[in-house]
Queue: 3 jobs
Job 1
Amino acid sequence: MNDSRDEILAKIRTSRSGPYVVRNELGTIEDRLKNHPRNVVPARGDGLPEEQITKFKAEAELVNATVTRVSSNIDIPKEIAKYLADNNLPSRIKHAPSLEHLDWSTTLMEVCHGIGEATDEVCVTTAYAGVAETGTIVTYSDQQNPTTLNFLPPVHIAVLNAVDITGSYEDVWTKLRADLGSKDQSVNFIPRTVNMITGPSRTGDIQQTLLLGIHGPQRLHIVIVDEKTP
Amino acid sequence: MEMKTTTFKENARTAIADETLQIELDRLSFGFPEKRKKAVDRMPEFEQLREQARDIKNHVLANLDLYLENYEDRVEKHGGQVHWCRDAKAAREQILKICKAADAKTVTKSKSMIGEEIFINDFLAKNGIEPIETDLGEYIIQLRGEPPSHIIAPAIHVSKAQVEDAFRRVHTDLPADRNLEDPAALLQEARGQLRNKFLQADVGLTGANMLVAETGSNVLVTNEGNADLTYALPRVHIVIASIEKIVPTLEDASTILRVLARSATGQDMSVYTTFCTGPKRFEDPDGPEEYHVILLDNGRTDLLGSEFEEILRCIRCSACLNHCPIYKAIGGHAYGWVYPGPMGAVLTPGLIGMEDASDLPNASTLCGKCESVCPMGIPLPKLLRSWRTRHFEAKPTRSLGQITLKFWAWLAKRPKLYHKVNGLIIATLGALGRRKGRIKWIPFASGWTSKRDFPAPMGNTFIQQYHKGARGDTSGRRLREVKK
Amino acid sequence: MSEAIPTSPHVGLFVTCLVDLTRPSVGFATLKLLELAGCQVSVPVMQTCCGQPAYNSGDRSDTRDIAKQVIETFEEFDYIVAPSGSCGGMISHHYLDLFKDDDTWEKRAKNLANKTFELIVFLSDVIKTNKINGQCKTTATYHDSCSGLRELSIKDQPREFLKNINGLKLVEGKKSEVCCGFGGLFCVKYPDISEKMLDEKVDDILQTETEMVLGGDLGCLMNIAGRLTRRGSEKEVRHIAEVLADMTHGPGIAAPEKTEA
Ligand code: SF4
């Protein structure tokens, strides 16, 4: 079964001595894999935390997401209920298990939690981080955060702690390595799925016209929370 | 009307005469470049990012074997399987094997150029498994029974009315009198039709924009979210990727992501960028139970180490297509194989052989626009020229054009004769056309005169006139004589 | 250019085959501009073609022979100047590529490449002449030829010079940077595609409603002029050197001989 593997690798090795091989100065592969050096990181995500939040909001809105800000966890359910009412959306939500600690009873919404299903209308998830550079939210899969919730419903609401807004994608990788890295850091830190989401689903496939909400959600609403969720 | 690489000239004529196609191509060549430019202008570090993206990929190609081994090791540590495949046939069979083991009836697919390259849909269908394209553009052309005409906008050649026709023809379960005037109605219909397919599929087949050696992840970039539903819902996720898709680290992937969307659609970032690593973990509430990677060579190792190696840096962003005046004139189908435009004209001869694809590298003015926008700094015109060289040097028989050229070169190497012969021709043509200023038809030059007049030469050559002494300076000649 | 420029540099004029054979007036205009700029100009009679047709057809051995001949003919001048971005680019960018396995010739090719310039670049960036101040009452649009634009970065220089031409008003086409579909042999090998590209170019030119089309490469200009006349337009097409040298008395490219003087 490994014949093809060996053949391919052998062919690559032979070709590496040819006259057209471009060598460059990026160092050995061991170094690169171990130290994962940053390349140029655009300056536009830089700034004080408050500037990054402003930048994040502006960039997310540029790509058709909506963004609001609340001061504490207590306000999240109310804010979500208000958003749904304001936009004439159904007040039945399914949230990620990671948000079970919130007091949902303060609103009249029908609330459940679990994995994404075809019948879901509105899903609420936790964002692991926000990237100011492009208004991107980052989520990852684990016991508390099913992937499918981010994609199946027509309305996706993401709860993002203000302190988790970073400048760049690189900042997110650094954070992820620090948060999830175990003894065998180089292998195990990466969750099964890491999703970067920049605005709601869209397509230009019908006559090159921009249309929102083809397979993923048509609406992406981001609730920034100043007080960190425990 | 099947378009093949060998009928390129005819394909081109057909495409130029196709008015619907021409409207869409006009739209494309206006829209994409303008959006790209805006995005690039908004990113002051764009040039630096481009250089680094190029360096990263060069570094990968120089160390490809090592990175592939590392990647494979990581995939396996995360519980996934890597299947190395030399060619399209091996890849197809491996995919079928996995599908059969999963007892698959339907396979959802998110857009993959490698899938096109190995013609996986036909193969699965022949073996009783229904492949369902989920990218809206791919879905449209699947309904129409066509190949894609663009690497990121596969249905770019299809008008709205044609989409409507296809939907009415296939979605017979819906009321015949429904209104599909509005593009949003078409969108809703497609969403509804595909929703069930996502949920029912046994296997999800995706491509990969990159493979990350550090983590063993595959990167999926889409705007629709179809790739995410494709890998997350079925029981088995199969990734098909060619070996050069490797990047070393998540940081390197980030750099390439920054140039990818900007070059492709002019977005700063595509909507969904996903890093998948292995199957569902023990504690995960959802996700695929099996994770397979088909690692495909299919001619790449032949390009490695050759004068065409640089095309292996390509990230399939489509900027070269979107800016190419030839692509704009004829669209993607005319190229006759999976990959159109400048990147296709370089890659296709490498994958199917120059004999069948010889028109592709030749049908270019080498205007250089593609190279100027390629985020990976691929010298496409140089590579097109290299194919011409290979072809010229390998082919003993000469076309009439080549013989004429040979004669011109022969003459150019004999300056005295050159000036005599050309002087005569020019005097004749000058006499023929000087009064009117142009000649409408010249024998053996109908390629020119069929489309445009030939501006009449003035009569005497510059060298003749000059050395007859109007300006009297013959130091050029003296210089030569002194040297001898 | 870090080296000092000789006070009266000796320039070898590479006139290019198309100018030589079909439009000597461009050669004379070039000569005049170079002399105005203070150069001593020679026109070696041993020159023929730069080898580009062979090169772009993949015939490297003939290209190499022709290149050697050009190198031998021109290497002793202070500068080599050509009124064409594509021939200039051929010598200054592509000759090097031909002699990868031959140190001696590679060195000679490099030496030549370093001192070979397209006319407008030479006048503007090397000699930095301020002697251009002609007269031409007209409106004109400028076509950026591909090799000039993308290989040699010729964009602002011709426009700057045209500002010094009294009475000339420049109107930019929306697609001035798009290829005209000439591409050397391309236009005869793929006439249908070429025609399609050319028509777009011509449409763009026509919508500027100018009297004149200017450019720096005769190949493109002949292509454009030939299509304009075929489509019945009498627009005047000229090489920019003719305008800058104030030598626009003769007919434009593909235009009939003038009846009145
Ligand atoms: S060749 Fe360059 S521009 Fe073309 S698709 Fe590949 S990366 Fe993009």
Job 2
Amino acid sequence: MLTESEKLTYSWQLDVPGFGESEQLTLKNSTALVTRVGGLGGPVALSLAAAGIGKLILAHAGNLREDDLNRQILMSRDHVGKSRVQCAAQTLNRFNSSIDVEIFDENITEENIDKIAGNADIIFSCAPLFEERFLLNEAAIKGGKMLVDCAMYSMEGQVMTILPGITPCLKCIYPDKPTQWERKFPVIGAVSSLVAQIGVIEGIKLLCNFQKSSLGKLIRIDASSMEVKKIELLPKRVDCLACN
Amino acid sequence: MITVTINYKGQIATEVGEDTEELSFQEPLPLIELLQALSAKATHAVSDFIFDAEGSPRRSLLVAVDDEQVIDFQNTLIKDDCVISLLPPIAGG
Ligand SMILES: [Zn+2]
């Protein structure tokens, strides 16, 4: 049941057609893993907190640097040199004290993924390395968890929602390890945030079985032309190493 | 004569310096031949996103024709007005 306070807090979104108390309750009873909490993961976590997700698990290693500040909006200048994930949790707890936030000052690895992702109902993959994204993809498939893969580069972004067993996965579209991706990429914070919001909307639709998710499609966002397009993906690859 | 549009995305667009280009061919052609023609006139960096050192199309490059993913480059025929998007993998967070 929603408390009277929760009904008041979320009253404006409870007016959205198709999104009622049962959908709000689903959010309240859901756990989302967000990795990492930088330019993309930070706004993902913030919007999930605003929407009333029950629990957030955040994973991101290391301390805030000055050159993170153009996009990592859960952190502020006085946080430079401090643990990113601790600062993110503080901001989120101040923003919505009714949600649980569990933090890991670690990036996803083969060794820690079961511990970090094990209790999540949905994973928001926002890491800057394909190694982490593929681990999250495999964990989602193995655990039957929903996955929203959000990525950006310069003025572009993309969001792919993955339902294990039903949709193609990240390995289906990138069967070989992308060797040309570089860890340092051009980024305006607003573009990361834009992509993050599309990812959160897709995640809420998936979690709450509300409206129509873009399953089997790759949502492409072009902030230069201000176009949002959907690429129709082929079904799961029969030779996909992750799906099979 | 056919004319097609190539949309360059991500790091390929950065390398090309443009995000779109129109190309003309004598007649409809398989996608693989279009990619080979594109690669032949491109810089090494651009070509390297499309083909590996053995000349096989890279499986980490997502290719869409008229907004539909294509993996069978031999048997996909490119006709007049087709829009071919080259989407290299991106993972910025
Ligand atoms: Zn797959």
Job 3
Amino acid sequence: MANAYYEKIARVNLTTGEITVEALDVEVAKKYIGGRGLGTKIAYDEGCATSDPLGEGNKLIYITGPLTGAAAPSSGRYMVVTKSPLTGMIACSNSGGKWGAKLKYAGWDAIIVEGMSETWKYLNIVDDKIELLDADEYLGMFSEELDDKLKEKHGKEASVLSIGIAGEKQVLMAAIMNDKDRAAGRSGVGAVMGSKKLKGIVVKATRTNPNDVIASEEALKAANKEVMVNIRENGLTGGGLRALGTASLVNVINSVGSLPTKNWQESYYEKAEDVSGEALAEKFLVKASACHRCPIACGRVVKVDDKVVGGPEYEPLWAYGANMGNSDLAAINKANMLCNEYGLDAISVPCTIAAAMELYEKGAIKEEECAGVPLVWGSTEALIEWTKRIGNPETELDWLMSSGSARLCEHYGMPEVSMSVKKQEMPAYDARGVQGIGITYATSNRGGCHVRGYTIAPEVVGLPVQLDRTVTNEKAFWAKTFQDLTAVIDSMGLCLFTSFALGAPEYTKLINAACGTEYTPEEVLLLGERIYNIERLFNKAAGMKPEDDRLPKRLLEEPVKEGPSKGMTSKLNVTLPEYYKERGWVDAFPTDETLERLGLGEYIGR
Amino acid sequence: MVEVRLFAGLRKGRQKVYQMESASVKTVKDIMDALDIEVKEVNILLINGFHQKPETEVKDGDVVSLFPAVGGG
Ligand code: SF4
């Protein structure tokens, strides 16, 4: 019976060059939904957790969800699951654009890449045919040029996923790019591709929808129609994100005194207006853009010099702006473009530069190490030049910087200057003035990250309800619920932004219609909880310790100096025990009882 | 004086910032009325960086920030 899966996985061994086709275990797929959930289960079972992330034993799992490309809002998502070389823990990076939908239309639930090639290769997928081709001629190219070149060769209907120069050089903050400017950005997944000498994956598909495997097209159509009403009627998904993109948050988060400034030394940026979504729309915006099948259209297209390119999201706008004490918006647009061209994580890279600026201010990094570009707060020359150097490192400091802020600050004997969790840089919300997001950061399985439980929605934006951002009450519950629901949305293959308008009941309707299941919303949330727990088991096997669920000392001990959150610190000492209780975890890991409850009994004792 | 800051779409046809005599406005709702902003247009309402309601009273020196539906991540 049709169940929204093509029931087909391709396994590509780069050591031997062998490509085999395997049947998807549908029962297992259903237990973990697909995408992020199923990818993590496969990665765990195939031993990635204990592998060297840049060695032969690690695998790259490019995986779609049952709803990827289907008739549901914002369904163009795919995920890359692997062991992160940045954190040493689970990586699951998620991207939009068109590539994921095309992979699904070509008839694949997942592509598992293993081993290591001796020479540079890329994969060419045309429906059910997959071939490995030489990639030497494409080395050293920027993402955009590479996209054009591969389309010249394979046809403009092809969709291209690739790594840039940063990935080739195994920079620990290298992203995987697709469709030119969409990124599976975080946790250094691009470096894993680089370590395997896999330059890209080109996909072409004859199908234009996955309806041949949808359990009930009619039911899905009806469910889609119903949830689209919510999407349209919600101010944010129905127009707010199209108007200003995620960049509208700069002024919001600054107004609540939670915009980390100068590497989180401050939390309020006087010049936020100059680098806000409003300013971006007024001065640089060409148009909004959307991923495959997305009615929300949060993407930005901006002008950089004489080029028209993908514009910055809220995160890079903050990281290259307030967090570096820079108010030059044109420079941010350019730096963001460079991240896309080199294939870099546009959160971790600027955050690492900001940490380096603090190290420079404190005298730890000396001017003579900077090869002519001192790391001075607000220097546009520094933020642009150092982005290029991180993308294509040569000197000792270049290489140190390209390994992320945790390793950089450790090297200079000031680990507390790295504003990271599990060695991954935290995003643009100061956890001192917003208590719930601190739980998300501290307990995120992939390290510092906001899209693993976006409590900013209730704590600041008022969705689905407005919570008091300053208190700890019930925040553990909210963090856990958002984490579990997010795991569901990711695993389905939908964009997280749909959750501003949709909740568990709506996602349940979509899953049931597409997969032919009869879940209740509670059961669907339980699937999410299972996924969150298997990620945690992956981390345990990878060597995670309870003390890795932490926040940087600055957030716990240095009260906010100025602005609306003045005097506040994160109360993680209160919320973390509450959170573990909510989860049924002791010392950061699930108890046997919890594993049994979640149908993860087979992992007891591992 | 009460400083009123408008953001995103609320700026359309209006200024970014207004200074209002505190004697002339008792609540945030009064401010919104004066600026011809409907309650349903405002998604985030802050006084001095903290979430409040339209009926909350304002006092001299307050900064009132009004946002329509904005956000993301
Ligand atoms: S909301 Fe934005 S990121 Fe999400 S699918 Fe739509 S355009 Fe892409």
